[in-house]
Design brief:
By secondary structure, the chain is an alpha/beta fold. The chain has 33 helices and 23 strands. α9 packs across α18 (439-446), α11 (287-294) runs parallel beside α12 and α19 (461-476) crosses α30. InterPro entries: Cas3-like_dom, CRISPR-assoc_Cas3_HD, CRISPR-assoc_Cas3_HD_sf, DEAD/DEAH_box_helicase_dom, DEAD_box_RNA_helicases, Helicase_ATP-bd, Helicase_C-like, Helicase_Cas3_CRISPR-ass_core.
């Protein structure tokens, strides 16, 4: 057969076979897909139900299509890219130049030949072409069906107006198109399937397929990745019948899936009470946890919204629900999505080995951390520290299957969502909605998972819009979701529930219950709102008083220090924090007991400061360690560290942030202390403030929170209630700022409010514009082609871009060196993230050091796309391990 003259994978040097023949690679990938689409798998059954096909018929049909994924490699233009020695292959044709990728060439070959192949029986006895009025529908459906296969490199491709003769040729040995036709015919005969022609000409079936095509695309991509692994699929360049090679491919695919954790989904076990998680130790569930244990699960995809105070055990309640959903067949894995890398790290540590209790002991579920700086998490790195199977100096048999699986999954953040249990930022999940390469792999990983989103209130309008779309898609794919929050406005809860109903094809309905705490459950024909009690020990009242100047705040800090209390002052900007820190060090009798913590530290110092803060103010800190300690911080303190202080001051901020900050005030039970008090630095109260009301006293705060009406409303509701009482007045606090309160806003602040409402509308529009139209399927849309790789589209909408700046120094011999040169992960530990306008104030790297900088970049890939800063060569800006990056110009209000 002509198709044995074409290579699919080639290795230019080394012992053994120099290439892997194209038909064999095609069958390798198909074999992986065969097992991933096994009829007993829940995802296969879900797809079969959506497409109204028996699972076995669906499997054979789609695996046949998957075997065509590399048809473009039959192009002589592609074959000319390598010339393996010692094997008879088609010779290159010099006039055929490889200017288009093989994935697009496959789409071109299919577009050109499918009608002829249908008619001559190449496609496995598809029968007569349907009548002309149905033929167009058939062609469009086949285009959609093949798009995930040809788009296996991470984005859909279209043939467009390419000319077949520019890439496919013929010669004395073989004709490229004829070789491809022979392979397709033999493959169709081998796999044995029936064309569902009646479905392919039905518009409603095509619509159903488009909705699941993203999952199919992820399946095709994963199959290609695994099927291309040389460790499992050794090269073969000797011709043999496809029927002989296919069992070999299946055997190798089975081994590849076993070693990467995809052979079988882990076996869930029923939830047996909290004691089963903690070695039989008696644990009394909180009211929220008790409801999670006893509520009746519905049929099909379900959304749960858990609203309760800090300390109510929301994470454990979510895990209870997750284990129950898994055991009931509503999912195969979990993904915990959190707002920041720091909170992701904390959740990864907190989860520990808890996820092992969700599955049978023999299952060995994989667990992966997913965010941009996960290599700095020692716990995660230890979990995947074993050598990779591909390392030739290591005996792969000595490695456990779990280690191999974790290592493979951790190789790329694109793979992280494929793990049985993933913990990471919400960004990793939202990237599935945006035109990033391999986004379909993320959606495939999420398709049958329980998605748990913590601190769901923390996202702006841009991210909320993307989250709503993710929830709608997740519901369509058959997944379930659990959302956790302590301070969610009612309107946000309604929007999230409406998105879920949209995904289920249901009309929106109004949520009426204003109780707090509250558990909301939404499913197919299911809607429950369950008010909950609160444990007395987590019911809190934090008193509020007001400070009108920084001098008053400094006096209040020092008064607390004099009586031996530990204090935190949370500021809204980095520069305000630095200024307060310097003033407090001058006044503190033991200045070494003052700490500064903000986002403008190199990662090396940020990790050190975090550890220092936890040691001095963490749960295990002693009275001697806490005595007179002062922490001046930005909001990074409230986001990531499990610490508490005796007394707190905060710059005025929106009510939800003040509630969150107050959660670090006397968080843990200790000896006798005064009643918890949060002093708020704010402008003098005014019933009728003007537009400069906030800026006159806190200009930095106004630069951060431009909608000054939110801060005025926060001040108003706190002055009215006199304290933060949780949970009793949670709804009053939140709705008093974020509810229908427009009529309460003074005229002087209306302009800022409407300006921000306009910006929020822009954010929503940007999210809708950037997000892929998932309902249109995994296809390039000719009207608006979003798949432009040079475009920078993010999961977060920011006022200006940020840059990763790498701090550099000179070594003792005068050479350029990383700031953290002697540390493990020195490249990442030497970086700090700055806004673009801030980075532009730093001195450029001296021209004489450019070659050394390029050498550093070549040595460490983590330095790519970063901006170098030789600190000692900058006479205007500086860096110090105590106060971080400082700028020469006055008036800076960096966040």
């Amino acid at each position: 057969m002509y198709y044995y003259l074409y290579w699919g994978k080639a290795r230019p040097d080394g012992a053994g076979a120099q290439c892997h023949l194209l038909p064999y690679h095609s069958l390798d990938v198909a074999a992986v897909g065969w097992y991933l689409l096994a009829p007993e798998r829940p995802l296969t059954q879900r797809l079969a139900a959506r497409l109204d096909m028996p699972p076995e018929a669906l499997r054979r049909f789609f695996v046949f299509l998957l075997g065509l994924h590399d048809l473009g490699k039959f192009a002589r233009a592609f074959q000319g890219l390598a010339r393996p020695e010692g094997v008879e292959l088609v010779p290159p044709i010099e006039r055929l130049v490889y200017t288009e990728r093989h994935d697009r060439l496959g789409a071109l070959l299919w577009q050109t030949c499918w009608i002829e192949w249908w008619q001559d029986g190449t496609l496995g006895g598809a029968g007569e072409l349907p009548p002309r009025h149905e033929r167009r529908q058939l062609g469009e459906t086949l285009r959609a069906l093949l798009a995930p296969m040809f788009g296996h490199h991470g984005l859909p491709v279209e043939a467009g107006r390419l000319d077949l003769s520019r890439f496919f040729g013929s010669g004395d040995i073989a004709d490229d198109v004829q070789a491809a036709r022979q392979f397709v015919a033999d493959w169709a005969a081998l796999i044995g399937f029936n064309w569902p022609v009646d479905k392919l000409v039905a518009p409603q079936w095509r619509e159903a397929f488009l909705s699941v095509s993203w999952t199919i695309a992820g399946w095709a991509t994963l199959s290609d990745w695994l099927g291309s692994n040389r460790d499992h699929f050794t090269y073969c360049q000797n011709p043999m019948p496809l029927a002989k090679y296919w069992p070999m491919a299946l055997e190798r695919a089975e081994r590849a899936l076993a070693e990467t954790g995809f052979a079988h989904p882990p076996e869930p076990i029923p939830y047996a009470g909290l004691a089963s998680w903690f070695g039989g130790r008696s644990v009394t569930p909180t009211p929220l946890q008790r409801e999670a244990e006893t509520l009746v699960l519905g049929d099909g995809p379900q959304l749960f919204v858990l609203e309760d105070v800090t300390g109510a055990g929301k994470t454990e309640a979510a895990c209870i629900l997750a284990q129950r959903l898994l055991a009931a067949g509503h999912g195969e894995g979990l993904y915990f999505a959190l707002p920041t890398m720091a909170t992701s790290n904390a959740m990864y540590e907190r989860l520990g080995h808890l996820h092992w209790h969700f599955y049978a002991e023999a299952s060995h579920p994989s667990c992966v951390l997913a965010h941009g700086a996960r290599e700095l998490n020692d716990t995660f790195m230890q979990a995947i520290a074993a050598e990779q199977p591909g390392d030739r100096d290591y005996a792969a048999d000595d490695m456990t299957a779990t280690t191999r699986c974790n290592r493979w999954l951790a190789d790329s953040r694109k793979k992280s969502l494929l793990a049985d249990v993933g913990v990471g930022t919400i960004d990793q999940a939202l990237m599935g909605l945006l035109p990033f390469r391999h986004q379909s792999l993320r959606l495939y990983g999420l398709a049958r998972k329980v998605l748990i989103v913590d601190e769901v209130h923390a996202y702006d309008h841009y991210m909320q819009t993307l989250l709503n779309q993710l929830l709608a898609h997740h519901a369509r794919q058959g997944g379930s979701a659990i959302l956790l929050t302590a301070t969610m406005p009612r309107a946000m809860r309604e929007a999230l529930a409406a998105a879920w109903r949209e995904g289920l094809g249901q009309a929106p309905a109004s949520l009426q219950n204003d109780a707090f705490p509250l558990l909301t459950q939404v499913g197919d024909g299911l809607e429950r709102e369950t008010p909950l009690a609160t444990r007395p020990e987590v019911s809190r009242e934090v008193g509020i008083d007001w400070l009108a100047s920084e001098e008053q705040a400094l006096d209040a800090v020092m008064a607390a220090v004099e009586v031996g209390e530990c204090v935190a002052w949370v500021r809204n900007t980095v520069d305000d924090a630095i200024r307060a820190y310097e003033q407090l060090r001058q006044r503190h009798p033991a200045p070494e007991r003052c700490l500064l913590f903000h986002s403008r530290f190199a990662m090396l110092d940020r990790q050190r400061i975090e550890s220092d803060v936890i040691e001095r103010l963490g749960k295990a800190s002693t009275p001697d360690q806490r005595h007179g300690q002062v922490l001046v911080s930005t909001q990074v303190f409230q986001e990531s560290l499990d610490c508490d202080v005796d007394f707190m001051i905060s710059d005025l901020a929106p009510i939800d942030l003040l509630i969150q900050r107050a959660g670090r005030l006397q968080r843990h039970v200790r000896g006798p202390r005064r009643a918890p008090l949060l002093s708020v630095l704010a402008p003098e109260w005014s019933d009728e403030p003007d537009g400069q009301w906030l800026k006159r006293s806190l200009p930095g705060t106004q630069a951060v929170y431009r909608d000054t009406s939110l801060l005025w409303l926060t001040q108003r509701v706190l002055r009215e209630l006199g304290a933060i009482r949780m949970p009793d007045e949670a709804r009053s606090l939140i709705e008093g700022v974020y509810g229908p309160v427009t009529d309460l806003v003074p005229d002087g602040l209306q302009e800022a409010r409407w300006e921000q409402r306009g910006m929020q509308g822009v954010a929503v529009s940007m999210a809708n514009f950037n997000a892929l139209s998932l309902e249109q399927g995994y296809l390039r849309q000719p009207e608006v082609d979003q798949w432009q790789e040079e475009l920078e589209i993010g999961t977060r909408l920011v006022d200006e871009p940020s840059l990763n700046v790498v701090l550099l120094k000179r070594s003792t011999d005068g050479e350029l060196a990383l700031w953290a040169e002697d540390e493990r992960h020195a490249a990442m530990l030497s970086q700090v993230k700055l806004r673009q306008s801030q980075a532009e104030k730093l001195a450029d790297l001296p021209a004489g050091d450019q070659l050394q900088w390029e050498a550093l970049q070549e040595r460490d890939k983590a330095l790519r796309f970063t901006r170098p800063w030789l600190v000692e060569a900058d006479t205007g800006c500086g860096y110090d391990a105590r106060w971080g990056v400082r700028f020469s110009r006055d008036g800076e209000n960096p966040r």
